[in-house]
Amino acid sequence: MSTTRPYSPGDRDPEPGAEPGGEAEVPTGGQARRLSFDGESGVVPLARDFTRQALYAWGWLPAASADQRAAAEDVLLVVSELVTNACLHAEGPDQLWISCDNKVIRVEVSDRGAGQPAPRTPHRAGRPGGHGMFIVQRLCLDWGVVRSPGAAGKTVWAELGAPA
Questions:
Q1: What per-residue confidence (pLDDT) applies to 7?
Q2: What pLDDT, on a 0 to 100 scale, did the predictor assign at position 159?
Q3: What is the CA radius of gyration of the chain?
Q4: What is the pLDDT of residue 131?
Q5: Less Cβ crowding at N or C end of the chain, within 10 Å?
Q6: What is the pLDDT of residue 148?
Q7: Interval 85-103: pLDDT, tens
Q8: Under-50 pLDDT residues of the chain
Q9: Angstrom distance (rounded) from CA 83 to CA 102
Q10: How far is the CA of 109 from the CAs of 62, 64, 126, 156, in angstroms?
Q11: Rounded CA separation 57/100 (Å)
């Protein structure tokens, strides 16, 4: 599902007045990490390595089962797709923010682009390119875009279920 709301439905909303990407969003018992891309090159592998380190720190890796390994690989793929989209369709990513609780991992990529990410429709699996947001949509519980009034750019967020 694609949305423009800053948070998925249900009881995961932040405290009133909390800004998207702020530390107040981390649920009780949750963990978060932030990576700035300011002045960096090779941002896609940098983002994957940063995320992989977080997954190890949070106990997602090394995976004890095939399902847990698949969940970790899905997170890494979504991070790659969101950062790549910021490189291709915006002026590059500004920051990656990932948070995790016992149910959901949330990935946020901020950039200065004005575009609105959306899966290409109809999706044509045999054609090169244009699969990023289709992949994100298929792998995630929910995803969306947040824009701050009066500020350039956006934050694209995605949420994936934690491994059982």
A1: 54
A2: 98
A3: 15
A4: 73
A5: C
A6: 84
A7: 999 989 899 999 999 998 9
A8: 1-5, 9-25
A9: 24
A10: 25, 28, 28, 5
A11: 11
Tokens encoding 147: 């824009």
Classify the C-alpha dihedral 21-32-82-124 as positive or negative.
negative
- Contact indicator for 31, 23 with CB cutoff of 8 Å: no
What's the whole-model pTM score?
A: 0.80
Give the number of other CB atoms < 10 A from CB of residue 76: 17
Phi, psi of 94 (to 5 degrees): -95, -45
What is the SS3 assignment for the chain? CEECCCCCCCCCCCCCCCCCCCHHHCCCCCEEEEEECCCCCCHHHHHHHHHHHHHHHCCCCCCCCHHHHHHHHHHHHHHHHHHHHHHHHCCCEEEEEEEECCCEEEEEEEECCCCCCCCCCCCCCCCCCCCHHHHHHHHCCEEEEECCCCCCCEEEEEEEECCC
